[in-house]
Amino acid sequence: MKKTLLTLSILGSVLSFAQETKNNTESKEKEKQIEGVVITQTKKAVEQKADRTIFDFSEQPALNSGSSLEGIKKLPGMVVTDIAGMMYQGKSLQVYMDGRPLNISTNDLTAFLEGMPASSIERIEVVTQPGAEFPATSGGAILNIITSKSAKSYLTATYSGGYRFSDYDKFRNKFNNSIVLNSKNKWFGWQFSAGQNYNESFGSNEMDDVSTGFNDRYARSYFAKSAVTIELGKDRLLLNYDFFNSDNDSYNTSEGTANFEYPQQSQNLVVADYLNEGKSKNKNYRNELTATYQKRFTDKAQKLDIRFNYSNFRNNFDQNAVNTVYIPNTNPLIKPSPAENASTQNAYNLRVDYSQPIKLLEEGKISIGGMYDKLNFVTDFYGNENLDYQRQTAAMYTELNTKFKKFSFIAGLRAEDYDISGKSLNLQSGKWDDLRTFKKFQFFPNGSIQYDIAPLVFFNLNYSRKITLPSTGQLNPNNNTFQNPNVNISGNPNVQPTIFNNFEAKLSAFNYGFISYNVSRVSDQVMMYVEKDGYNISQTNVNISSLTQHSFNIAIPVPLMIFSKPLSEVMKFDFNPDKINFLYFYAGYQFQDIKEITEQKGMWFFNVTGQFLLPKGIKFAPTLSYSTNGNYYFFQSTQPIMNRVNVNLSKKFDGDRLTVSLFADDIFNSSRMNFKTVNTPTPIYLNNRWDSRTFGISVNYKIPTKNKLAKVDQNILNTETPKDDTGGVLNQGQ
Q: Which of 47, 50, 10 is nearest to 410 (CA)?
């Protein structure tokens, strides 16, 4: 009740403040509009902002030719592993889609991104310095996936399709298709996007000397995004509905050595080899509904947005397998190994954001807002509920932006009140246990100072305090991967939230180049924990009491015109990056100082991306990624986790409406995920590989609009970016 009253007071204050300022702005002179003018803006492949890095996917065949996950893995500074999830420049990421958190676990997130074609992404924004208007749960950084294309007057359509294959032990197919439809008139507009993905793949793994496995996977997924925007004078009402479904089959074989009870019910354990064979099925359903009311004023810098969002995510996992146990001097023992569990997550979010300019120093802006968020997560094991987890968050924030000569300042404060509770069923005792509660009211300040050294060259100092709440995948006590007789994988319902204190210094130049140093002091980091007891291996999640993470990053663009043109002309950066030859170099160093670990070793990450214009308008884009061995929390890589070469050849036809790409990923078949534990008396070795070497073709065709002078509006498929270049709230349809 306390949180409800707090939230209502927040919303009432914001609405009242907006109404008082409305009368002052209505009297201002309305802006004149110029009709029939077409402005063409060249997109940048990579763009550095004060608080984020923006990667354009729509015009880069090297990024949009496969699945979304494959495209994300190719971004300089991005690391994607099963051990630590997604990290960018050493910072753990919260994944957003169109301005809203996905709120799904690591395994489900991987399946989700594998099932969505990269061609459905417009751009990706990695917000390295989330401000106060972002939820404090943004943690280290935010990866915001902006989907679809912009809407135009009259009906337009874009089709994207692709085919890939791999050939290891057998030939495997992968293909995707999607379409985007847009239409708009002076009263309302609508958009619809839908697609499917089919992926045949394999994976193999080794867990120390006790288990080896192989899975042959068939993944099918479908998605649809729909939106309607209704014009209400200067105001707008936006309604969005998103749907995602995946249906994955996996045929599994594993073998190893384990302890078995023999004879049955004798409590006598014998060591025996086993062969585990079977099939698993994993189904996911995601539905999301959003309603947004946008109040606009005469002054375009003044905005009021009210948004309600509801999302539902369901997961069903079934395993049908048989263990054949080879006990010495007896006939093989046949033992069924079934599994059946499910989970349901419901999330509700109400958010209000208001901003307006104020007279402070040379110029300024103030933003205020509030949020109420509720999440319910329930799991069941063989049809019996065994976890009931509840989380409620009430928040309010204020942020001030101002400028004085060459200095820009941002100061923000966010207050959040958490109420996390629940209970879990102890399957052995049959009794319900209360989870560790987390009921706290916390402040989260942030600040930034920017100095403009020269046009397009600036230096930033940033600080922010953030929190990360455990994902439902980390909490789920049930296994949702194929399980062996001697391997137990589960979540931990009692892991606690993680607190971050982030410091950063960054020098950026000409949008593409930068050098930065980050320090994060982290409390209660949630991390995968693996231990071994005889022939048994268990994997769960625990909190690391404290750690300090250091990250150094540098990126340098090298236009090859420096060898043919004067440096003074090159430094103007007055050219279209899509029309030149260049190399883009990235290097990053990451070191984690964890007191529980004596063997500490940092990691270097390197990425080189090239673009070369060949005759006949063909574009050649190679990418090289490589990393040194080093520590990831309780693990140390024994082989480079990044070691791959990708190549892409693309050409545009029909007035640039049709783009065709030929590509090959990981052409030297060198991608591996091999780790050993560094927190156990004897290292435990975990090795994984998959069919990373693929070849394929992708096609993207844009049907032109009937009206060549049609005004381009912002996409209405929920592509909200919560913060614009000047630090304010940027919303749809402004």
A: 50
